[in-house]
Amino acid sequence: MRYPIIEVMAAKEMRDAARSRWLAGFIATFLVLGGALMLVGSMSSAFGGSAGFGRTTAALVNLVLLVVPLMGLTAGALAFSLERERGTLEGLLSLPVRTDELFWAKFGGLAGALSAAVALSFGLLGLGLAARGGFGHAAAYASCLAATLLLALISLALGLLLSVLARRVATALGWALLLWLVLVFAGDLGLLGTSLAVRLRPGALLAAAWLNPLSLYRLLAIDATAAGLEMLGPAGRCAQDILGSWLRPAALAGLLAWLGAALAVALGLFRRDPIGRGV
Amino acid sequence: MTSFASGSPAVEPSQRRFAATLGWAAAGLLAVSLFFPYWQARLMAPQYRQGLTATMYSYKVVGDVDEIDGLNHYIGMRKLGSLARLERIVAIPAVLLLALLCGFSFWRGTYALRVAAAGGTIFFPIAFVVDMAFWMRYATKHLDPMAPLKLKPFSIPVIGSGRVAQFHSELMPLLGFYLAVLAALMTLGAFWLSRVKTPRNDLSSRRTAAVALAIAIMSTVSYPASAANSLTDLVARAAPGAVIDLPAGRYDAPLIIDKPITLRGNGLAVINGHGQGTLIKIKSPGVDLEGLVLENSGDSLLFEDSAVRVEAASAVVRGCRMSDVLFGVFLVNAPGALVESNHMSGKTIDMGRRGDLVRSWNSDRITLRKNLLEGGRDTVLWFSTGSIVESNTVRDGRYGLHFMYTNNAVVRENIFQGNSVGLYVMYSKELRIEDNRFENHRGPSGAALGLKESDSIWVSHNFFLGNRQGIYIDGSPLIEENSNTFTKNSFVYNDIGISVLPGVKGNSFFSNAFVDNLQQVSLRGGGQLRGNAWSRAGQGNFWSDYAGYGAAGAAIGSLPYRQDSAWESLMDRQPLARFFLFTPAAQAVELAGRAFPLFRPKPVLTDEFPLLAPPAGLPSAPMAPIQAGMEFPIGLLFVSGLLLWIPRLRPRRAATALTPQANIPALEASNVSKSFAGQAVLSDLDVRIEPGRSVVLWGANGAGKSTFIRCLLGLHGYEGSIRIFGRDAQSDGESARAFVGYVAQEFAGYHWTVREAMEFMADLRGVARERIAPTLARCGLSGCEGKAVPQLSGGMKQKLALAQALLADPPLLVLDEPCSSLDPKSRAEFLHILQGLKGSRTILMTSHRVEEASALADLVLWLEAGRPARLLSREEFVREVSAGRPLWVELQERGLRPRALEALAKAGFSAKLNGHGIWVEAEPGRVSPMLEALSAAGISVRDLRREIAS
After folding, report:
1. Domain boundaries B2-197, corresponding CATH code
2. Can you list the residues of chain B whose pLDDT is less than 50?
3. Domain locations in chain B?
């Protein structure tokens, strides 16, 4: 692996991403919605100061769950399919560049752009929160940010996987939206229905969280920002009782496993067929 | 009577008759004893004013057995009915048999029978007591370890009084037992009367033995004398009412104070319990302890090891520091005690094994004020009516404050933090709970304030922040008319603001603020909360999630506040669903409830007069300074800026350029085959191109020209071998491509400027950016650096592609039909540039235009389907493809075709119309004169190509 080559191509990816409308759109969406939530939550801060985990914070977690995976999945889905569709992928591959280098450069560049977007969004929101006196727990905020970055990277990796498989942009974006729906809505709704119908044990419900990176993110974010997981009912208490202080390492390991698996599969497929004769 | 006298000295008949009478009387007593209780145990506790009684017959236990079993369950003791089952079964036949034996043996029985009767009758009451003691010991030593309350094994005296926790036990024999004892005595008398007279033994020796035995017994029950220490001496010497200022130093516990004195330590006198028992016991009214340091009590919950145990009225414990103590201040029957300004910290052991830092038992009108209690178990007030608890801080315990049967008390201005439960009120009434702060009471049963079966509680101006449940209500008020009132409280950031069990009625909530609780009000099990008032006198509560509106200047919303969330209703009914809190799925359920009335649950509560703003004067958390936490988000902005700026920095140049070795073919293909879906496109292609040669790959569409190019670029896998300057294009592709500059059929680029496109290529190929300008100039793009690539014409884009390919000065230039989409002028310009490159490097270009091949090629590699590839010289190629082949010319304006025919005829060319173009008979060397002839006639050519049959 030749890092200067990756560096050059990753810089190109970041430049392109920074110029693209989708990134600016996501940042704007995040900020507008987050800002609105912040204004709504200013009532709470007058009462609770900076201490609380309330509906505002919960809504921010919710916002992240909605926006960040969509951002990562679409960025990833566009990565190779767009290059293929406009013919630039062939040009890049005809250069003295290895497929692995191109893959990691894509991932690195987009990861950098996503990180910048998330950091910018969290920074501006944090400024707003601090200005209204409601931002005092930098460590919790930083933990939440770190978990959000990890979630963004996982979404990106899953998007790359779709992008490697898809030949056309429309196909890749379609699959990305479908996956987003599954991760964000359908998975949880299905699990909710199943758990109530068959009366899943709390331990089993907790274990199911490892099947969805968004659930793991939620556990991490709540653990970092809220006073305790018992707010999640029996399964939350089960998490505290069974995992205790191991919850964060276990959830982090789960997220890293998702990231590693998605990248490994995507890279394997890209190596096998970089030009893409797939879907 | 022979048997009675046989072998024995004579016994007086009167004696014999009396003995028989005594025997039958004993038998009767034994039989009658079955109808009377033998033993009784009473448990006394303040909540059981009449006490609990267990009455034991020889064969059964009666009385308050169920209640006692219920209590025993909490400490893991077995049920009374499960103990001594065998004994109770055999008791009646055994007693009756013994009674018969007594009567018969002294009437007609042998000596052996008399011995058996006397022994059995004497043994019976003893055995009863021993057996009872055994089972009591067994029951109190074998406690269920899974019991809710963990107690160390304890013992209860078989007779007399004892204590277990707050229970006082009294055990005593009853009539049945006395009858059995009397029967034993009578049997003994009967046996003595019917005895065989023997010489008297040495009486003095028996008396000596008896005295020795008595001394021995006495010695076992006498108390060991404890050595008096200096603290005990000090107190012993003090007169009642004295004030003792203890010098600084360390003193040994225990200390018992039995006279009204004041003991001062000024924070320097340390009394150490060395991990044993209670440090100070106050047994006299009017004792003051001030400024003592008390540490290291015992850890026995059974013996209630404490720092200070008060068993008298009007004690004062003030300004003391107690650490590593099981119980802090233990008040037992100590009315009017004042516990003030003390700092107590418990032992660092499991919560279940800790003691209560303050426990008040049956002590009315006590005052707890300004104490700091941390790390204990509970602060409990039992039967302590009229007490005041104010300005204390209680944290990190189980129950910050626990009221049991404690009425008319006041709890105000306290801070409860981080306990499992802040304040739990059970079976109490008429309390005022005001101006307290409850923060972060978490855990499975976490609640800031809990009410269980408590009446007439006034809760106002309290602040509930970040608790699992702000207020938990179970069966309160017990009597609906004894309403509990909650007003002017703030519930902020709690998981649940108020949690209510089903069936709760008679509570009144008004002028409270419910702000940003994850769930404002929860009714366990779901349903509607009826019989509770959510407003009073037109004044409701403030709800931060109220979605109504109000007229300008109005204080009350125009629409009622209804808590009818579908998701919250689901969580109330199915606690497992809480796991999905904050998920978009939960929001979907909520949205479905709002959108479709079918899914909308009935409201848990309705506040008809919701406040539009929180009432004035409600408690709140101190605001954080405005600048709090600014550094971190500013840092984030800096980081994000850095991330976006870094790509604009000039990256390191990637060193991908290689220098080819001399005397190695520029391109060498051996047995190259490639198929798509079983269709062979290339078959065993062999070619060798020496450095510096210009080779055109010639062939019709589908002949495999582009496929070969893609194979050598590593874009397709293939069979055989392609080596570029000795590097295998497949296994060492990136090295092979380092020698290659590639121009595709159509330029595909990004939304960059020409400069940016060139810089990217320069950085990637490790070329100095200074070479960009001359390369662009060489390709006819001078002055175009600032132009956006998408705005370039097709010809300029191809020139840019060529410039990018030439930037690294590659020894092999590969072009895949670069002119196919260019107009003749651009094509001519492009070919001109390529001609200028001839000789400087190896050129491999695909084309199906004869003029391109003839203009550029030294050699032509002719690919034809089904035939081996042929390598021809340019001349051979031209001859082969040009003979008799006309040139097809397309004009810019189709209507000028007749004029063009005339102009061409004048210039000596044979031409004819064909479709929308013209056929012209022109040898390859006469193309330029032909174009000049048309140009002279003012006719522009759009395209021209030589039609060949391949």
Report:
1. 1.20.140
2. 1-9, 198-202, 205, 208-210, 212-228, 624-628, 949-950
3. 2-197, 248-513, 667-881, 887-946
- Residue A27: closest CA among chain B residues belongs to which residue? B640
Cα separation, B255 vs B278, in Å, equals: 8
The pLDDT mean for chain A works out to 85
Give the per-residue pLDDT at B15. Answer: 80
Which fold, B887-946?
A: Alpha-Beta Plaits (3.30.70)
Asked if the Cβ–Cβ distance from B647 to A232 is below 8 Å, we say no
Please give the pLDDT value at position B58: 87
Q: Give A24-67 pLDDT, tens digit per residue.
A: 888 888 888 888 777 766 555 555 554 455 666 677 788 889 89
* Chain B residues closer than 8 Å to A96 by CB: 656, 734-735, 737-738, 740, 765
Question: Which long-range contacts does B524-530 make (Cβ < 8 Å, 24+ apart)?
Answer: B524/B499, B524/B500, B524/B572, B525/B572, B525/B573, B526/B569, B526/B572, B526/B573, B526/B601, B527/B502, B527/B572, B527/B602, B527/B604, B528/B602, B528/B603, B528/B604, B528/B605, B529/B500, B529/B504, B529/B604, B529/B605, B530/B505
How many Cβ contacts (< 8 angstroms) between chains A and B? 311
- Rounded to the nearest angstrom, the minimum Cα separation between A54 and chain B is 5
* ipTM given for this complex: 0.88
The answer to whether A232 faces chain B, any CB pair under 8 Å, is yes
Strand pairing report for B372-374 and B393-395: parallel
State the pLDDT at residue B411. 97
A105–chain B Cβ distance below 8 A for any pair = no
pLDDT digits (tens, 9 = 90+) for B613-647: 888 877 776 554 444 467 788 888 888 888 878 77
Q: Comparing C-alpha atoms, which of B842, B765, B837, B836 is closest to residue B811?
A: B842
Paired with B160 in beta bridges are: B171
CB contact under 8 A, A188 and B584: yes
B86 closest CA partner among B127, B41, B140, B42? B127
**Per-residue pLDDT tens for B339-376?**
999 999 999 888 888 899 999 999 999 999 999 999 99
Question: Is 2.30.110.20 the CATH number for B248-513?
Answer: no
How far apart CA B87 and CA B99 sit, in angstroms, is 17
The span from the CA of A77 to the CA of A79, in Å, is: 6
The dihedral region occupied by B817, where left means phi > 0, alpha psi between -120 and 50, and beta the remainder, is: left
Mean pLDDT of chain B: 85
Q: How many CA atoms does the CB half-sphere of A175 hold within 13 Å? A: 21
Q: Which CATH class is domain B667-881?
A: alpha beta
